[in-house]
From TrEMBL, chain C:
GO cellular component, one term: plasma membrane
Source organism (scientific name): Candidatus Segetimicrobium genomatis
Topological category with respect to the lipid bilayer: Multi-pass membrane protein
Source species, domain of life: Bacteria
Domain ABC transmembrane type-1: 70-291
Keywords: Cell membrane, Membrane, Transmembrane, Transmembrane helix, Transport
Keyword field contains Transmembrane: yes
Subcellular location: Cell membrane
Keyword Ribosomal protein: no
Record-linked PROSITE patterns: ABC_TM1 (PS50928)
Annotated protein name in UniProt: Sugar ABC transporter permease
Length: 275, 410, 303
């Protein structure tokens, strides 16, 4: 396909400009993290005169970033593990067993794809309070797990349905127990689907700000996005530290993305792109 | 089951061995270093009690505290605001009631301050007042000297000072409008001299007049005189940026509260500054100064460590605490008899003899929508030029009429 | 055998159903009921029918705030469609021709989608600081100092600025979705059109756009849902009151403020908060349902 050179140059110019607009703010963020506040004000675009690594050290230790990271990792891992286990179990039952109400239950889970759970935050808040779960990480884990289930059930049921039916019948004839069939035979076969489910939920859970804002008040239980707001309040005049905090907070996700960009692009657009 | 839960909640009480750990929430992010020191002094005297000071961003504090208390959680010791800000939490029973028997030290506190610690409905005490704040104007002495300026005595002189600074290429006022509450503070400085101070306050809180009164709206209009002397982009200037401009000597004046003194000094030791109060229209009249009880230390009614928490707030009512508080933070402690050593703070104390209640905070924060919420948004409109002072007065009156009966039908 | 099969079904389906029913279905259904009760703090009092709605619609300042916030959500949707999604479509068309570096561009464009909106909001709030921020400094350097302004403090630019920041974060998402949609257009169609003498623009307009309809519907739907759930960015950059003077107030902020406490008092009004939630819920559900039907119909037409 040959197109006129001028057209191709113009296209490259547009694409490069957009790439620049995306990257420039992030590069400036990273560079500013090494500057003093004065330097940021006077020389916002240039390289730092001295590379002040101590900005990061200060943020990591004094501003409790280590703690916020730990909480975020705990919450994200726990939520995803629950989503995967419960989602796979439900998807297996819905995809492999025929029973009355199968379709109805499937649709019931799917309804969760449409319902904006944030609007149920008041009853959820009161429910968590009555369960004595407010201001604990469990409030977050259970909320994320429940809101991740519809997509998990949807994706996994579809996958289980595509598996040939003689697989489990053969095992059943051999006398294998249901749990064994599920765990040893079926789950390994849907591993690609499990990865999609994990990626689909990973970033939204890691980045969520709304539920911690409502559920968590104790500083040492804050996840990274909520901890950022405390940090910004306390260091509001120290721009070097602020940029170091932002850079530090962005780093894990950016690194992970650099390693697995295709999986993330596919996983995050999974709901909107078919196939 | 209940036993298990109780045991789970009161581990220290059950064993009686480990020190009791109290959490203490506050909105005073800037004062953390001082509170940490004060707490150390307390802990030395009370080895069995540890206190952790946890500050939140001021604009988010009430919402966070509200969620925590309704959840049956929250800190043991609570930095509470005063007046309506206290009532919100006291009325539903979240705050432990205090009295002179429990805290005899409170008997010596001034009545006006204690009024800011009482529930409106029951008149009971819910906290130990911690500070009086006055709203003033800070000025950079060096910049004033460089431009041969002296402290203005009248409003017109004030405007001349502002103009001279602007003509000399100096930013006269650090103030901004991105955060509505900083504009409310500005109105608290500028307006009382023009609406007639406490006489108007009494009339409006009794419902004899409203904020549509031209005395009030004309007073608000005086704020517009200041607009040309703020940064051209002042509507985007937030509180932190205001502070930074004054601290870094990029602006000559800062209209704000007496709570800034300590922070300004800590941030720039070479900053040579002082305060004056809003000048009246005529020379020779004593200017009104808006002041109020800034807040109180209270105890969570549900704390498992009631005795320890009471011990701590009892400590905050002592002269020793008051002196440390005043010395370190350069704020006027509510404890009577504290010696003010900081010259600027002393100046604040002298100049605010003719005090008038900070109108919305003291008088109109009892229910939603509060006078402050309404005024802050409306002032942003006024300073941006999209609302007249009369519209501001209308909007505030109309909004308050939702719960303040005397305004209904006005 | 039968009972054991049933037991296994309960074992496999039970946990997911319980978690989903407890933490999603129950709260959402309760939210509808809550709006019909009187509230004192978080204590539920008597049934009052539609009184909360009446209060929301008829009393100042709620009535004004509701309408104000609603129109801001509409504006967010419309402007996002115009600037973010149209740009995304353009970029997708360019990328679909597989120019040099396509893989790299895809990765770069999608990168901000990974970032938390809290990071994005704080970052741009620093950049947009009217005095110390680099946006105004850049404009001054570029001899366009006259354009420098208090982007977030000026009521006429604040919301638009937030929308642009939001678009900076999201742009890669619709770009990838559109790109996938274009790449799914069968090559034979395009070739056939070319043989018939269709120009570049004709191919895009006659072949690609109509076949892109499902992708467009999905993006319109997601943009709508996103616009009406907009919370993080205005909260982080402008605070919970929608400063200045409610110029960036949106329904989610209004909802959060009324339900969890106003800034200066911490006063909660669960009745009004629930009523706002119900209205938002009805709106989102209606639009999602209509969107889903449209999507279904288009897919059928294509098949």
């Amino acid at each position: 396909m040959n197109r006129p050179l001028s057209g191709r140059v113009a296209a490259q110019a547009v694409l490069l400009l957009n790439a620049f607009l995306v990257l420039a703010p992030m590069v400036i963020m990273g560079l500013s993290a090494f500057k003093s506040t004065r330097e940021i004000f006077q020389n916002p675009f240039g390289l730092p005169g001295v590379w002040r690594w101590e900005n990061f050290a200060r943020v990591w230790v004094e501003a409790k970033f280590a703690l916020y990271f730990r909480n975020s990792i705990l919450v994200t891992m726990a939520s995803i593990i629950i989503i995967l286990i419960l989602g796979a179990m439900a998807g297996y039952a819905l995809g492999r067993f025929r029973f009355g109400g199968n379709d109805l239950l499937y649709l019931y889970f799917l309804s969760g794809l449409m319902l904006p759970i944030r609007l149920g935050i008041i009853p959820l808040f009161i429910l968590m309070r009555n369960l004595h779960l407010l201001d604990t990480l469990w409030a977050l884990i259970l909320t994320y797990a429940a809101s991740g289930l519809p997509s998990a059930v949807f994706i996994l049921t579809g996958f289980f349905r595509t598996l040939p039916s003689d697989l489990d019948s053969a095992a059943r004839i051999d006398g294998a127990g249901e749990w064994l069939i599920f765990q040893r035979i079926m789950v390994p076969l849907v591993r690609p689907a499990l990865i999609i489910v994990a990626v689909y939920n990973l970033i939204p859970v890691w980045n969520d700000f709304f539920f911690p804002l409502v559920f968590i008040q104790t500083d040492r239980l804050k996840t990274l996005p909520l901890g950022m707001t405390t940090f910004f309040g306390q260091y509001s005049t120290d721009w070097g530290a602020l940029f170091a905090g932002l850079t530090l907070a962005a780093l894990p996700v950016v690194t992970l993305y650099a390693l697995l960009s295709q999986q993330f692009i596919r996983g995050l657009t999974a709901g909107a792109v078919k196939g | 089951m209940i036993c298990l839960l109780v045991a789970g909640f009161y581990p220290a009480a059950a064993t009686g061995q480990q020190p009791v750990k109290l959490t203490f929430w506050s909105w005073r992010v800037e004062d953390k270093w001082a509170y940490d020191k004060i707490i150390q002094a307390f802990q030395q005297r009370n080895p069995g009690i540890q206190v952790e000071f946890v500050p939140f961003k001021a604009t988010e504090y009430n919402t966070i505290l509200s969620s925590a208390l309704t959840a049956g959680k929250g800190p043991d010791i609570i930095h509470l605001r005063a007046y309506g800000g206290l009532e919100t939490f006291a009325a539903p029973g979240y705050i432990a009631q205090l009295d002179f028997d429990k805290l005899p030290e409170l008997k010596t506190f001034s009545r006006q301050l204690l009024d800011g610690a009482r529930g409106r409905k029951d008149g009971k005490l819910y906290g130990v007042p911690f500070a009086t704040q006055s709203l003033v104007i800070y000025y950079n002495k060096k910049i004033f000297a460089q431009n041969n300026l002296s402290v203005p005595k009248t409003w017109d002189e004030f405007l001349t000072v502002l103009k001279t600074l602007k003509d000399h290429g100096v930013l006269p006022l650090a103030n901004g409008g991105k955060e509505g509450w900083t504009l409310e503070v500005m109105s608290g400085v500028v307006a009382p001299n023009f609406y007639g101070g406490t006489a108007f306050y009494d009339a409006v809180t009794r419902g004899q007049t409203s904020f549509k009164d031209t005395a009030y709206t004309n007073a608000l209009a005086k704020m517009l005189d200041l607009r040309p002397y703020m940064h051209p982009n002042f509507m985007g200037v937030d509180y932190t940026t205001m502070q930074q401009q004054f601290i870094n000597e990029q602006a000559a004046m800062f209209i704000g509260g007496s709570w800034e003194i300590g922070f300004f000094k800590a941030q720039n030791k070479d900053l040579d500054f002082d305060i004056f109060v809003a000048p009246p229209s005529k020379a020779g009249t004593t200017p009104w100064v808006s002041s109020y009880n800034d807040g109180n230390y209270g105890v969570n009614a549900k704390t498992p460590y009631m005795d320890a928490a009471l011990k701590f707030i009892q400590f905050t009512a002592t002269r020793e605490f008051g002196q440390m508080f005043t010395d370190m933070l350069a704020q006027l402690s509510a404890v009577p008899g504290v010696e003010v050593r900081d010259p600027i703070l002393k100046h604040v104390q002298e100049l605010s003899r003719k005090a008038t209640p900070y109108i919305m905070l003291v008088g109109f924060r009892w229910q939603a929508p509060t006078g402050s919420t309404l005024l802050q948004s409306a002032l942003q409109g006024m300073m941006a030029g999209s609302k007249t002072p009369e519209q501001v007065g209308d909007e505030v009156t109309k909004g308050l009429s939702a719960w303040f009966e005397p305004f209904q039908g006005r | 055998m039968r009972t054991s099969r049933r037991m296994w079904l309960v074992f496999f389906l039970g946990p997911a159903t319980v978690v989903f029913a407890t933490f999603i279905t129950y709260p959402i259904l309760s939210a509808l009921a809550f709006s019909m009760y009187a509230w004192e703090g978080i204590g539920r009092r008597g049934f009052i029918g539609l009184a909360n709605f009446a209060r929301l619609f008829a009393t100042f300042p709620y009535s004004g705030l509701l309408v104000n916030a609603f129109w801001h959500n509409v504006l967010v949707f419309v402007v996002t469609m115009l600037i973010q999604n149209v740009t995304a479509l353009g970029l997708a068309v360019l990328l679909a021709r597989s120019p040099w570096g396509t893989r790299g561009y895809r990765v770069v464009f999608f990168l901000p989608v990974m970032l938390s909106l809290v990071i994005v909001g704080f970052l741009w709030a620093l950049f947009l600081n009217p005095i110390f921020g680099l946006v105004n400094k850049f404009l001054t350097l570029a001899h366009a100092g006259a354009l420098a302004r208090p982007w977030l403090g000026d009521a006429s630019t604040a919301l638009l600025t937030l929308i642009v920041v939001n678009a900076w974060r999201w742009l890669g998402f619709p770009t990838i979705v559109f790109l996938a949609g274009i790449n799914a257009v069968p090559e034979e169609y395009v070739e056939a059109a070319r043989i018939d003498g269709a120009g570049e623009w004709d191919v895009i307009r006659r072949i690609i756009f109509p076949l892109l309809a499902p992708a467009v519907t999905i993006i319109v739907l997601l943009t709508f849902i996103g616009s009406f759930n907009w919370f993080e960015l205005p909260y982080i950059m402008q605070g919970v009151s929608g400063a200045p003077n409610r110029a960036t107030d949106v329904l989610s902020l209004l909802f959060y403020r009324t339900a969890f406490g106003e800034v200066d008092t911490g006063l909660q009004d669960i009745g009004i908060g629930s009523a706002i939630a119900v209205l938002m819920f009805a709106l989102l559900l209606t639009v999602s349902a209509v969107g889903a039907v449209l999507l279904r119909r288009r897919e059928v037409e294509l098949a």
